[in-house]
From TrEMBL:
It is found in: Nucleus. Gene3D superfamilies: P-loop containing nucleotide triphosphate hydrolases (3.40.50.300). Pfam families: AAA (PF00004), ORC4_C (PF14629). This is Origin of replication complex subunit 4. Component of the origin recognition complex (ORC) that binds origins of replication. DNA-binding is ATP-dependent. The specific DNA sequences that define origins of replication have not been identified yet. ORC is required to assemble the pre-replication complex necessary to initiate DNA replication. One of its GO terms (biological process) is DNA replication initiation. The keyword ATP-binding applies. Residues 55-201 form the ATPase AAA-type core domain. Its main location: nucleus. It comes from Acacia crassicarpa (northern wattle).
């Protein structure tokens, strides 16, 4: 029972590490040239020197922009607990200027225990924000504005950005604006009056290199030898991890995965899947765990759906693909049935079903989201007349038919002809 408990404890430790950004990014931000160090220096300088600043964090999704920012803000809140106030907005929720400024006012009121007025106008909230910036500046307190999906705030009239950056021109205000965006040209979206007030400081985030990815993996997967886990078990576990890293099969799997998606976010998903496959009987990771994780992540749900389709449903999908290749503008159940009959008459197939059975199969494919109606406005129309389209590509359908053990040879011929 004791051995079983320490194996479970090791599994829980590995899972908790993967879900802990602070632990994950530790090997990446130890360097003074890391984005963590640069961002922390810029923000701490603004706080201690009482100056305004605006910074853009740019990079593809999953590259660690938000995670690193959260780490920096968390560290600064510990170092300067009474000198920072954090306001968070998301372009997905607050891209409307009125909505955004109202949310700023709400969070400021909550932070400083003031009464928030839902009926306040844009101008009222704008004046309130300017007044709070001055008050916080006099109290040597910096307001940090975090604008996630920054490019969405740069649409429309950009009144929020102008109001905020214009208020920061005053020597009495004290604020830092941090924009997060996956658009590299986010600052070019700003109007001239807004751009002239922006500091144009940018930090570029890129997916980790192959060496960085391996460092993260080794950092996460190595158990501490000086913990409550048995020393011999931790040493043996770490030795097996090193053996896996040196294994040719693992290197091939890991390289294939990084070629598919090398972002930190997806790397952690891959590691979590591998750890979850660990055999608790032995308590050790194996190459097979990583191969299983790779197969799980790379699996194609549509191909799995095809494996569970009936022969009739496969006929309907192939007939729809034939109509698509013929560039038939209208593809509904009736036209599919005509194509199905043509196939039967041309090849004298034994698989021919009644119309009402075909209609049930057609509806089943819609429920499985392998096909869909193209016009949602036709709910009152008969299913037979509503135009429909395939939600599966030719290559996926081809692969699905090959993987289908009892697939009629005629369907392969029909697909080969269209290919």
């Amino acid at each position: 029972m004791g051995r079983e408990s320490h194996k479970m404890k090791a599994l829980s430790l590995l899972r908790s590490r993967i879900c802990d950004p602070k632990f994950i990014f530790k090997p990446l931000h130890d360097s003074p040239d890391s984005n963590y160090s640069k961002l922390k220096f810029m923000m701490s300088s603004s706080i201690t020197e009482a100056c305004n600043n605006s910074i853009l964090l740019l990079g593809p999704r999953g590259s660690g922009k938000s995670a690193v920012l959260e780490l920096v803000v968390g560290d600064l809140l510990v170092e300067y607990p009474d000198m920072i106030s954090v306001i968070k907005l998301s372009g997905l929720l607050h891209s409307d200027d009125n909505c955004a400024l109202k949310e700023v006012a709400r969070q400021l009121c909550l932070e400083h225990q003031l009464q928030f007025s839902k009926a306040a106008s844009f101008d009222d909230n704008s004046q309130f924000m300017v007044a709070m910036l001055k008050e916080c500046g006099l109290a040597h307190k910096t307001i940090v504005f975090i604008l996630d999906e920054f490019d969405l705030f740069a649409q429309g009239k950009q009144r929020l950005l102008y109001s905020l950056l214009d208020a920061m021109q005053s020597i009495t205000s004290q604020a830092v604006v941090i924009g997060i965006s996956c658009r590299m040209d986010a600052d070019q979206l700003l109007e001239k009056r807004v751009r002239s007030r922006f500091s144009h400081r940018k930090l570029l985030f890129l997916p980790p290199s192959m060496e960085d990815s391996k460092s993260i993996l080794e950092h996460v997967m190595s158990l501490p030898v000086d913990s409550s886990l048995p020393h011999d078990y931790a040493v043996e576990f770490n030795r097996k991890v090193q053996d896996i890293l040196a294994d040719r099969r693992f290197k091939e799997t890991f390289n294939k995965y990084l070629n598919f998606d090398s972002s930190v976010k997806h790397l952690l998903r891959f590691l979590f899947c591998a750890v979850s496959c660990m055999d608790l009987q032995t308590g050790f990771l194996t190459c097979e765990n990583f191969e299983t994780a790779f197969s799980s992540i790379m699996r194609q749900p549509k191909l799995e759906c095809l494996k569970n389709c009936s022969i009739l449903e496969l006929y309907i999908l192939v007939c729809m693909k034939r109509l698509e290749v013929k560039e038939q503008t209208l593809c509904n159940f009736n036209s599919i049935m005509k194509e199905y009959k043509n196939v039967h008459d041309s090849f004298r197939t034994s698989d021919y079903y009644a119309r009402n059975v075909c209609l049930k199969a057609f509806e089943h494919l819609i429920n499985r989201e392998l096909i869909c109606f193209t016009d949602n406005r036709g709910h009152s129309s008969s299913v037979e007349f509503r135009p429909a389209k395939l939600l599966i590509s030719s290559s996926e359908l081809h692969q699905g038919l090959k993987a289908y053990h009892s697939c009629p040879a005629i369907l392969h011929k029909l697909m080969d002809r269209e290919g």
